[in-house]
């Protein structure tokens, strides 16, 4: 009986620590949202912000509700799902370098979206307060981006089935897939009009500032079922983390879990790329940091990686808006600067 009480006590301490880390990340994200609302070309005081949040006719309300809040929500939603995608892919592929960006899936989605914009006419060149490029048929663009990502996923799954394949080989295969999709995108641009080329190049830069309220709602509606699915299968990912044989011994259909996880991850990556462009490395950084902090239990790793992914992307976007103000950099440039050293660090660690 004392032994049982001691075990229960240790388990309660184990879960309590992870719960408090999640609370801390939520508070940090809330604080960053307030800071991000305040930072911008228009100088607004905290009083103006609070007043505008509750009064649509107040000073600055138009800027906050039509520009800054949709941008912040887009960064949070995209960051959440990049963190989840990285955690799930690193588990099902048993590869610490796996993420939609490093495995070529994001570039596959970018190729599909470029195909929709250039060939199928899903994008046009306009000048608005939010962006110079308008995706006038987001559903067609998301579908084409998903099909492009699906090709990348199938290639990765086929490579993963080859016996004795190493994590380094899989990453090299991802680099090859990225190069192939980039070549395909350039091929389309070569035969496109000047306006279409300008639209696709401008669109390819990962930038959360192009999101408007409709984009935010569509992204949220499409991605919430994926989050529920991943959390529902958290125990299955824990089993996979212990090894293929252990997972099968516990009754997990490993092939189905792996395939579904990759497909749903690629779908959420495709939705993000279709609306915001290619934003790399957030899905690589967030799960690695959280795995070191809270361990490999996916019941906690998935939601905390999601929160940290949102924090990283929102902080990067806030930095992109302020570092060369009034010039606003695409957030993909900031995440690439942060993620490349992390990528090299993981490679060096794997070589030891």
Describe it.
The protein is mostly helical and 352 residues long. It has a single domain (1-349), classed as ABC transporter involved in vitamin B12 uptake, BtuC, CATH 1.10.3470. It has 14 helices and two strands. Strands 1-2 form a two-stranded antiparallel sheet.
Strand and helix map with partners:
Layout (H helix, E strand, L loop, with lengths): L1 H37 L7 H9 L6 H32 L12 H14 L4 E3 L7 E3 L2 H24 L5 H24 L3 H11 L8 H20 L1 H8 L2 H6 L4 H23 L5 H13 L3 H25 L8 H21 L1
Antiparallel strand pairs: 1-2
GO molecular function: transmembrane transporter activity
Subcellular location: Cell membrane
GO cellular component, one term: plasma membrane
Nutshell version of this structure?
It comes from Methanobacterium formicicum. The protein has 352 residues and is mostly helical.
Question: What's the number of extended β-strand segments?
Answer: 2
- H and E string: HHHHEEHHHHHHHHHH
CATH topology: ABC transporter involved in vitamin B12 uptake, BtuC
CATH superfamily: ABC transporter involved in vitamin B12 uptake, BtuC
Strand content: under 5%
The level of helicity is: over 70%
Q: Helix tally?
A: 14
CATH architecture heading: Orthogonal Bundle
SS-based structural class? mainly alpha
Overall pLDDT:
82
Classified by CATH, the class is Mainly Alpha
- The gross shape turns out to be globular
- Main sheet characteristics: 2 strands, antiparallel
Low-confidence stretches: none
Number of domains: 1
Q: Over the alpha carbons, how many angstroms does the gyration radius reach?
A: 21 Å
Protein name: Putative ABC transporter permease protein MJ0087
Pfam family, one: FecCD
Keywords: Cell membrane, Membrane, Transmembrane, Transmembrane helix, Transport
Main location: membrane
């Amino acid at each position: 009986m004392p032994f049982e009480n001691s075990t229960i006590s240790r388990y309660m301490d184990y879960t309590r620590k992870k719960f408090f880390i999640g609370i801390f990340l939520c508070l940090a994200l809330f604080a960053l949202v307030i800071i991000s609302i305040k930072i911008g070309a228009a100088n607004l005081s905290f009083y103006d912000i609070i007043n505008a949040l509750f009064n649509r006719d107040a000073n600055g309300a138009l800027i906050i509700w039509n520009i800054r809040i949709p941008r912040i929500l887009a960064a949070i939603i995209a960051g959440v799902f990049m963190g989840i995608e990285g955690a799930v892919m690193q588990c099902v592929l048993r590869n610490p370098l796996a993420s939609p960006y490093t495995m070529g899936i994001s570039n596959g989605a970018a190729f599909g979206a470029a195909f929709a914009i250039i060939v199928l006419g899903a994008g046009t060149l306009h000048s608005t307060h939010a962006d110079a490029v308008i995706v006038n048929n987001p559903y067609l663009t998301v579908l084409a981006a998903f099909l492009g990502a699906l090709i990348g996923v199938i290639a990765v799954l086929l490579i993963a089935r080859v016996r004795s394949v190493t994590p380094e080989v899989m990453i090299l295969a991802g680099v090859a897939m990225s190069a192939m999709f980039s070549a395909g995108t350039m091929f389309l641009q070569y035969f496109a009009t000047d306006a279409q080329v300008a639209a696709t190049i401008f669109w390819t830069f990962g930038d959360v500032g192009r999101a408007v309220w409709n984009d935010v709602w569509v992204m949220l509606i499409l991605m919430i079922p994926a989050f529920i699915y991943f959390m529902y299968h958290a125990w299955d990912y824990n089993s996979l983390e212990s090894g293929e044989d252990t997972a099968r011994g516990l009754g997990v259909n490993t092939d189905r879990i792996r395939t579904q996880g990759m497909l749903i991850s690629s779908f959420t990556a495709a939705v993000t790329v279709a609306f915001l462009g290619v934003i790399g490395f957030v899905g690589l950084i967030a799960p690695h940091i959280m795995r070191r902090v809270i361990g490999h239990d996916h019941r906690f790793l998935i939601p905390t990686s999601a929160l940290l992914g949102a924090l990283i992307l929102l902080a990067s976007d806030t930095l992109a808006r302020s570092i060369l103000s009034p010039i606003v950099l695409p957030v993909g440039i900031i995440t690439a600067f942060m993620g490349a050293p992390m990528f090299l660090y993981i490679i060096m660690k794997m070589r030891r």
